[in-house]
Amino acid sequence: MRNLKLTLAYDGSDFHGWQIQPDHITVQAALAAALLKITGETVLPQGSGRTDAGVHALAQVATFELASPIPTLGLRIALNDSLPPSIRVLEVKEVPTGFHARANARAKTYRYRIYRGDICPPFLARYVYHHPWPLDEGAMIGAAGEVVGEHDFTSFAAVDPDRAQRIAQAEARAASERRLCGAASAEHETEDAPTNIRTIYSSQFERVGDELVYTVRGSGFLHHMVRNLVGTFLLVGKGSLTPGDIRRILIARNRSAAGATAPASGLYLVSVDY
Amino acid sequence: MRNLKLTLAYDGSDFHGWQIQPDHITVQAALAAALLKITGETVLPQGSGRTDAGVHALAQVATFELASPIPTLGLRIALNDSLPPSIRVLEVKEVPTGFHARANARAKTYRYRIYRGDICPPFLARYVYHHPWPLDEGAMIGAAGEVVGEHDFTSFAAVDPDRAQRIAQAEARAASERRLCGAASAEHETEDAPTNIRTIYSSQFERVGDELVYTVRGSGFLHHMVRNLVGTFLLVGKGSLTPGDIRRILIARNRSAAGATAPASGLYLVSVDY
Fold first, then answer.
1. pLDDT score at B167
2. Which residues of B fall below an 8 Å CB-CB distance to A?
3. Contact between A90 and B119 using a beta-carbon 8 Å cutoff
4. CA gap B35, B43 in Å, rounded
5. H helices of A161-255, where?
6. B212-237: per-residue pLDDT in tens?
7. What ipTM did this prediction achieve?
8. Which region, left, alpha or beta, applies to residue B192 given φ > 0 means left and ψ of -120 to 50 means alpha?
9. Of the partner residues B86, B119, B121, the one whose CB lies closest to the CB of residue A122
């Protein structure tokens, strides 16, 4: 079997997110359908991470095994012929056996676009969050820097009862292992790992014309983490919080301490580093 | 009654064109519904011209009479709150009684965007025509200039049996009037006028990054005229026609002499001059 790596861009507006789901159109399902049509093989490409409904990608990465000897360039062209124009395969590459889009990801970059103009052009409506109301953008720039470094991002993670239970179970298991073997529990930085600790390498706002653009690069991101960070930075912009409150919210390890989840339309998975 | 002029932008992708139609979502119907909701008045804004399904507008103009004393700025805000994000009202202005978006239009500018890159970004798919195949762009630039001036554009007009009949009737009427009164028949340049003669003030292609952009300004345009011009210029780009053939096609006054209608997604009504 060959191991293949896809790099793809998508307009998330019309998809129910990345992950395959019954009765919903998803990016992963569209890719699997195109691969079946082209090669006759039933494969499920594994993404570097899930993106939610409405979230876009400039360069999502997915890996899968394929028996077909189809050349990588031919596969790219066939996939783009078969997929809807809202998903484009930018590159198909042969990678060593065992390379996995999620497990091998070292860092990811996300971007969030806030349109600040009075009237949002109809051609941008699907691709930004329109927020024309007053914001102290300087305070937001200050707040963004507060999350750089290694932190427990529980306050910014979607409350997911299953996940909370998984973490509790893993912690109990680790504690029991420590009792038995005296070994420290391993820390993982992939999205499925039962810890909410992540490292943020850079986190900044920038004004680009009528847009306020947030770019964040980190070791990994929890579910809704970027949108919850943006929702909290917006509270700083509105004056409900100060930049210094960000540290207090991180320490609280409590989702209710942070701001609301910003809308999906403004969010882009920009790139994945390996 | 007040006479109001709206300037509006829309993403035509999700609309069945401008004109109200039973069982279809159209821009005119969405505007009428929003005006009814805001003012309680049933009015049908009259556009400067119709745009087809999938065609966009950067500054379409529409006029209508209203009894409500609602201030123009308040009406603009209320309309944008009520309309889908794919339609934005850029301006509402009070204009003298009798001013009509179509009848008073002196000139219109359209733009057509052809994406030339190998892979069309998913965020542009709704807003351009993707044509990655070889084109002699220099020949297309030459061909575009051939339509400047006053011409009969029958070869570039959609074949519309009703319209052909209307023109024949009008010509018969004009001939009979000439016989009776010795008067020359008036030439109109609005889209409903029963003549296919139009004046093109400028017509040019320009390379803008990965896009080949056609911009045309004229006294008025027949149904499908810009898309049929672009479809014909594409035949010049492919080498099936020479720039000199454009004159021959104009003189033929026959739709089948020209190229196919280019897809709607690349077309924008840019502005209307009064």
1. 62
2. 9-11, 56, 80, 85-90, 119-123, 125, 127, 130
3. yes
4. 7
5. 161-181, 225-237, 245-252
6. 999 999 999 999 999 999 999 999 99
7. 0.84
8. alpha
9. B86
